[in-house]
Amino acid sequence: MMVVRRFPVAGLWLVFFVNGAVLASWAPRIPDVAERLGTSDAALGGALFGVAAGSIPALMATARLLATVSAHVVCVASAVVFVIALPAISVVGEVMWLAAVLAVLGAASGCLDVAMNAAAVRFQCERRSGGGESRSVLSRLHGGYSLGVVVGAAGATLATAVEVPVREHFLTVTAVLLALVAVAASQLPRLPADVSAVGAGPSTVRAVLALPAAIVAVAIAGLLVEGMVTDWSALAIARDFGAGAAVGSATLAGFSVAMFVSRSVGDRLIDRFGRRRVLVGGAAVVGAALAVGMSQSSAPVAVACVVIVGLGLGPVFPLAMSAAADNASPTSVAAATAAISAVGYLAYLAGPPMIGVVAEHAGLTATIGGVGLGCAVIIGACGRSRALG
Residue 72 in contact with residue 81, Cβ under 8 Å? Predict the structure, then answer.
C-alpha cells in the first residue's frame, strides 16, 4: 500500500531537479579540474568514461533492486551519493582517482535515473487506481530535471566567470542540494518494494522485449535526440555557424529552458489531446525545426531552431514512460518502467559518442540534422500506434 505525504508531487519534483543539477554543475568545470590535475586530453577522456562505466551497469541492475527495496529509499540513497560525489571530484589529486569518483557518480546517476522514474510512474498509476486524481504528472516531473540542468549550468558558468575555486563551488552546491534532498525525502510517497517481481519478475531485457516495439522506439529516439543536442549543439553552433563559444553555450541553455517549458505544460496537453496527438505534433515540430536549421547558414536561425527542437521534444520520453506502465501487467509495472528508463538512458549515453564518429565523415551539422530527422520520423510514426494511445 502506498503511503502518501502532504506534497508527494513536490517531493518527486525535487528529486528530478537535483538529478539535473548535479551533472550540469560538474560539466562546465571540467576544464578547471583538468588544469588542476595537469592531465592530457587522452587521460581526461579515459577518466570521463568513468561516468558511463558506472552508469550503464547501474541502469541495468536497478530494475531488480526495486523488487526488494522501496523506490523512495533507492531515490534518497542514490541522490545523496550522487550529490556527495561532487566535492570528492574537487579534491582528487590524480586522474586515476578522478576516474574512480566519476564511476561512483555515474553509478549513483544511473540508479537515480531508474528509481525516480519508476517511483513517479508507480505513484501516478496507484493514484489513478485508488480513485485519486487522474491527471498526468510525469511530464512536469521531467520538467524539474530540465530546470535543474538550467540552474546547475548557470551556477557553474557564473562561478567560472568570477573565478570561484572548484572546491568552494562544489561544496556550496552540495550543501544546497543535500538540503533539497532532505526536503524531498520528507515528502516522497512511500512506495513498497514490488515483491511480486522477485524471482518470477522479468529481467530488464525481458521487460523491454515484452513491451510494444513502438514504446521502446519512442523512448530510444527521444533520449537519443536529447543527448545528441545536449552534447553537440553548442559545438555545432559555435564552429559550423561561426557564432562563438558564448553563443553555443547560450543555445544549450535555451534548449534546456525550452525542454522545461514544454515538459511543464506537457501533462495538460496529454490530458487534453491524448498521447498520440502530442507525440505526432511534437515529432512534427522537431523535424521541421531540424530541417530548417540544417538547410541554411544563419546562426540566429540555427539557435532558434535548436530551442524549438526542445519545445517539441520535451514531453516525448515522459510520455513513453507512462505508456510503458499502461501496457505492462500489474505485476510488471516496476520492471517495465525501470526497463524503459534503462534503455532510454543507454541511448542518451551511448548515442552522442557514435554521433561524433559519424560526424568525422559527414560533418557535425549534417549528422545532427540527419539523425534528428530520422528520430523525428520514428517518433511520429510510432505515435500513431495504439500502444501509445
Answer: no
Grid coordinates representing 221? 529516439
Which residues 6+ apart lie within 8 Å of 326 measured at CB? Answer: none
Q: How many CB atoms lie within 10 A of CB 93?
A: 9
The contacts found for 88-92 with CB under 8 angstroms, 24 or more apart, are 89/26, 89/33, 89/166, 89/170, 90/33, 90/166, 90/167, 90/169, 90/170, 90/171, 91/167, 92/37
Contact present, 114 and 338 (Cβ < 8 Å): yes
pLDDT in tens, 41-65: 678 777 878 888 898 888 878 877 8
| 0.70 surpassed by pTM | yes
Question: What radius of gyration, in Å, describes the C-alpha atoms of the chain?
Answer: 20
φ, ψ dihedrals at 3, nearest 5°: -100, 120
Domains and CATH numbers, the chain: 1-193 (1.20.1250.20), 195-389 (1.20.1250.20)
